[in-house]
Write a structure and sequence with these properties.
binds glutamine; seven-stranded mixed sheet; three-stranded mixed sheet; alpha/beta; 24% helix; Rossmann fold
């Protein structure tokens, strides 16, 4: 496949994303500095810790360069912390944390509860055929608001600590951006990455 997908490799589980893309036959590039962005067709923003990634994005010079590439139409797939980096609004974030603020969603950091509240769920994802997608949520962000420009591709039903039971979006798409609040790279299921790659190929 004549396609190179970059994976932001400053922190978090970028290796697992690279493994999934390799399984799909996609060329990958670890992105650690602005020069690594040249020639990539898409960029994965992995899970990890968004506050740490924010600091490293700034110190590496990537914050501005990735923002520029995204504004020029680079495809991006943000997973968990990566979804936080793409979100227009971050609730319960650190006051100095920065991101790309491009997808018209509001996310609440750690909104499902602390580490101990990590959980798995089977999801029906719009655009993915076959059995449900097993999703692993680890201190995941909760999507609290979604603008009408954003397509909700999957939702999860969850009982929150305040005794409310809500159905919340967990896979969202807007233009060239895809985001999910869980870790699709941890289950051996390549279909969400395939969805991202198909999105890039459909415009190439
Ligand atoms: N809680 C993390 C953050 O705020 C995200 C967790 C994850 O990526 N698994 O960045």
């Amino acid at each position: 496949m004549a396609l190179t997908v970059g994976v932001l490799a400053l922190q978090g589980d970028f290796q697992e994303h690279i493994a999934v893309l390799s399984e799909l036959g996609v060329s990958t590039r670890e992105v650690r500095s602005p020069k690594d962005l040249s020639g990539v067709d898409g960029l994965i923003l992995p899970g990890g810790e968004s506050t740490t990634m924010s600091m490293l994005l700034e110190s590496s010079g990537l914050l501005l360069e990735v923002a520029k590439a995204l504004s020029e139409g680079l495809f991006a797939f943000g997973t968990c912390a990566g979804m936080i980096l793409l979100a227009r609004e971050v609730l319960d974030g650190r006051s100095d944390q920065n991101g790309f603020a491009l997808m018209d969603i509001a996310v609440r950091r750690n909104g499902f509860g602390r580490q101990i509240k990590s959980f798995e769920a089977d999801l029906v994802v719009n655009g993915i055929d076959g059995p449900p997608v097993r999703a692993v949520f680890i201190r995941a962000p909760v999507v609290e608001k979604v603008a009408k420009e954003v397509a909700i591709l999957a939702e999860v039903s969850y009982s929150f600590d305040d005794d409310t039971h809500r159905v919340v979006p967990v896979v969202c798409a807007q233009d060239r951006l895809l985001a999910c609040s869980f870790h699709p790279e941890l289950t051996g299921d390549t279909r969400l990455h395939q969805l991202f790659v198909s999105k890039i190929l459909s415009e190439k």
